[in-house]
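Worked example 3 (structure in, sequence out).
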């Protein structure tokens, strides 16, 4: 099994990519850029996939991270693709992902090289 630390790093790297994709872009511009939307959504899916692969025991030790919500968003993006609300993707990418990144970095510091 892959170490938890690597999944957490995957989350941080995907969050960093989202930040790059949306640097200096407002919501209106993003909504008109299909390629950018799809790129952001793919990285949100990566975040959800990494969260889903973390062991339940690990997630239960770190309830400060909304693991079920992260995985649920991934499931909607993958299985209900045509129901994706791009405004929710925007909010997720610009508000929730940066906060998640901050929390994951804190968690990485806390767990060290375990």
């Amino acid at each position: 099994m892959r170490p938890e630390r690597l999944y957490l790093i995957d989350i941080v790297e995907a969050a960093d990519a989202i930040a790059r994709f949306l640097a200096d872009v407002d919501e209106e511009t993003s909504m008109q850029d299909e390629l950018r939307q799809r790129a952001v959504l793919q990285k949100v899916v990566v975040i959800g996939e990494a969260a889903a692969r973390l062991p339940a025991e690990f997630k239960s030790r770190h309830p400060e991270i909304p693991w079920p919500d992260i995985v649920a968003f991934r499931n909607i993006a993958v299985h209900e693709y045509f129901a994706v609300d791009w405004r929710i993707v925007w909010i997720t990418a610009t508000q929730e992902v940066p906060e998640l990144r901050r929390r994951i970095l804190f968690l990485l510091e806390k767990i060290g090289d375990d």
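Notes: The chain has one domain: 4-111. The helical segments are 4-22, 27-31, 34-53, 56-61, 67-79, 86-111.
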